[in-house]
Amino acid sequence: MKKIALITMAGLSMTFTACGGGQKESEKTVADKDFVYEVDAFADLEILRYQVPGFEELPLQQKELIYYLSMAAIEGRDILFDQNNRYNLAIRRTLEAIYENYKGDKATDDYKEFEVYLKRVWFSNGIHHHYGEEKFLPKFSQAFFAEQVKALPANLVPVKDNQSVDQFIAMITPVMFDAKVMAKKVNQSGGDLIVTSANNYYGDGVTQKEVQAFYGAMKDTTDLTPISYGLNSRLVKENGKLVEKVWKVGGLYSPAIEKIVFWLEKAQGVTENDQQKAVITKLISFYKSGDLKTFDDYAVAWVQDLGSSVDFVNGFTEVYGDPLGIKASWESTVNFKNVEATKRTEIISSNAQWFEDHSPVDKQFKKEKVKGVSAKVITVAQLGGDCYPATPIGINLPNADWIRKDHGSKSVTIENIMEAYDAAGAHTGFGKEFMWSDTEINMIKEYGFITDVLHTDLHECLGHGSGKLLPEVDPNALGEFSSTIEEARADLFGLYFLGDAKLVELGIIPNADAYKAEYYKFMMNGLMTQLVRIEAGKDIEEAHMRNRQLIAKWVYEKGKADNVVEYKVKDGKTYVVVNDYVKLRSLFGELLAVIQRVKSEGDFNGAKALVDNYAVKVDQKLHDEVLARYKTLNMKPYKGFVNPVFELVQDKDGKITDVQITYTEGYAEQMMRYSKQFSTLPTYND
Q: Of 680, 589, 616, which Cα lies nearest the Cα of 262?
């Protein structure tokens, strides 16, 4: 629950490379002016490349370490596909077989739509939208699909045991084509959230009530260091009894996990120091045992490793994919420290206690002593699992509240990803279409760079690490509302302190008015422009989007009497206008106090009321208008990335002499290569 995606403004990246105290956009430099960021575009998606500046200058040992960790990052791809839906691997492998063996006319509408659908499945790691959670449907015909499956060599059709090709088609067709079958990967709209969600974290016949009772019975409210119950398993019924199938070597997903462990063991041999080696050793031990106490040992060791330049995330980490926030998706990133840009985050983290002490929340919910808060700016070298192709721009881990309280957390801002977004989003015309006046456009041009980066820094470094749970409060007390509330808490912390004079005093923001750029963008996005990411007529499902609307609508409603924020219409178009930035900051502080209380007390009903009243429902008339205006810009609301390719260079004796990086691989080319080289799981993982 502790990562932030680049979702500040739909379609317009207002994030920039940050160095020291901040530089203006015009002062920004790009290592390679001829670098091509755009790779492909289809549906509502654009595929980009990212550069890895500084990799060539790293010592060979660090390059080799990055290579092994990068291989481990790709090996878990099949796990995420299967976690997202039990038929995803069957569908992906069938589509890829058709793609590779197609003999017909590629100019037909059916084939063109087939390619788009396959690219969407790759992007979303399955058949449900990566952000909106709803199933996207093929626009080619069922007859075309059946014909192509039947034309495949029999060994390429991933049938189940004793299943004919016709039976396979009959099984898969409604999963792909029927909007009512497995309609949402994650359902947050009511009813039984487990039964109505299409993810693969729970077996057939398992209900929400049974899940909550099963894990509720395990918990000891007197345990001050509780494990993350159920984090790394699928909960199924066997002979009418609930049983966990643990993801580990020798358990569920073993073939893929064995490969991950293989590369981690290679990485052990080229670590930078003993502490980093101990981190990898503990992670391997967790993968082999599946023991969540060992996972906590790994997380503590990882958060305490502050001396290594190369770092990584690898494992079952985030719980957005489970409507109850229990089961974790598999993800990985590999990165190394950007030393110069990290100076900014070090200033912030070294003042963590000041920010905690001056937070506008009730004293009983504050940490008396902030421990182990570290933050850095990183250059990502490889993305995997739930961080690929769509990736966050910031990460704060570990997630366990007691580890954060007793040992601290590590926060990162991913600068080269932000650079790629910015380069690809330049000159879009978005600002002129949706910002109220030249005043806002110029303000964001002047200060959008540093305020956006600082909001991410504050969100990750301090926001997620702030506050505390009251004694004996269950970390999962907020249930299906926990992700939205947690993201809102971190966003509000960042927004509130972005307008504090302390940032000017610390020398990391240009002046006392710069914060207004981020305030305007946030309100415009939360109230209006993020709606381009939702289909007409739909509610908001995704936790980050719910968080932003919750904040924006709450402060809009509370500030109505003083006209703090308003909607204005000009030339038939609706705009968001901020009239009083000082009062807006005060409202952010008030809501932060409310949400911290809800979090600290484990107030489920309070969380539910906030989400239901402010975060979910959409003004359909405004939504239609935003979609129509956005369409004229010919932009894609979602972006993702292809990875660079790393290759070992060896001499005639087999000794590694270098690791080369290239940026020429295309989107379909990379996806097909990954499916051939890094696909070890069986099609059906029952």
A: 680
SS3 659: strand
Q: Which pair of tokens denotes residue 205?
A: 């016949």
3-state SS assignment for residue 86: coil
Compute the average pLDDT of residues 402-416: 90
Q: What is the CA radius of gyration of the chain?
A: 24
Q: Output the CA torsion sign for 402, 403, 404, 407.
A: positive
User: Tokens for 281?
Assistant: 């050793």
CA distance linking residue 686 with residue 684, whole number of Å: 6
Cα dist. 454→36, 538, 567, 585 in Å? Answer: 27, 32, 27, 16
624 is written with which tokens? 């239609």
**452 confidence band (pLDDT: 50, 70, 90):** confident
The answer to whether the beta carbons of residues 418 and 393 sit under 8 Å apart is yes
User: HSE on the CB side for 452, CA within 13 Å?
Assistant: 33
CA 400 to chain centre: 18
Q: What's the CA gap between 395 and 56, in Å, rounded?
A: 25
Distance CA 73, CA 153 (A): 32
Which residue in the block uniquely carries the two structure tokens 């497995």?
A: 182
Q: What is the pLDDT of residue 374?
A: 85
- Identify residue 514 by its one-letter amino acid code: A
| Per-residue pLDDT at 524 exceeds 70 | yes
Q: Summarize pLDDT for 322-332 with one digit per residue, the tens.
A: 999 999 999 99
Residue 273 DSSP SS3: coil
Distance CA 195, CA 198 (A): 8
Question: Where does 189-230 have alpha helices with state H?
Answer: 208-218
Which of 463, 470, 478 minimizes the C-alpha distance to 611? 478
Q: What is the rounded distance in angstroms from the CA atom of residue 491 to the CA atom of residue 522? A: 10
Alpha-carbon distance 603 to 388, whole Å? 34
Return the number of other C-beta atoms located less than 10 Å from residue 600's C-beta. 19
Q: Determine phi and psi for 412, rounding to 5 degrees.
A: -135, 145
Tokens standing for residue 268? 């052990």
Residue 433, both tokens: 């279409």
Q: In this structure, how many other beta carbons lie within 10 angstroms of the beta carbon of residue 544?
A: 21
Percentage of residues in the chain with pLDDT exceeding 70?
Answer: 95
Q: What is the DSSP string of 163-200?
A: --HHHHHHHHHHHHH-TTTT-BSS--SSS-TTTT---S
Tokens of 62: 């660090």
pLDDT in tens, 14-34: 332 222 333 333 333 334 567
pLDDT of 550 above 90? yes
Parallel/antiparallel/unpaired status of strands 330-337 and 310-316: antiparallel
Q: Residue 339 belongs to what H/E stretch? A: helix 339-350
How far is 1 from 510, CA to CA, in rounded Å? 31
d(CA 99, CA 115): 8
Q: In this predicted structure, what is the pLDDT of residue 32?
A: 53
Decide: residue 452, CB within 10 A, 0-12 exposed, 13-18 middle, 19+ buried: buried
Whether residue 383 contacts residue 76, with contact meaning beta carbons closer than 8 Å, is answered with: no
pTM, entire model: 0.83
Half-sphere exposure of 323 (CA within 13 A, CB side): 25
- Alpha carbon 652 to its chain's center: 42
Question: How far is 561 from 566, CA to CA, in rounded Å?
Answer: 11
Residue carrying structure tokens 């000082």: 582
pLDDT for 163-195, tens place per residue? 999 999 999 999 999 999 999 999 988 899 999
User: Do 68 and 270 meet the contact criterion of CB atoms below 8 Å apart?
Assistant: yes
Q: How far apart are CA 311 and CA 242, in angstroms?
A: 37
Burial status of residue 265 (CB atoms within 10 A of its CB: 0-12, 13-18, 19 or more):
middle
Residue 54 CB neighbour total at 10 angstroms? 16
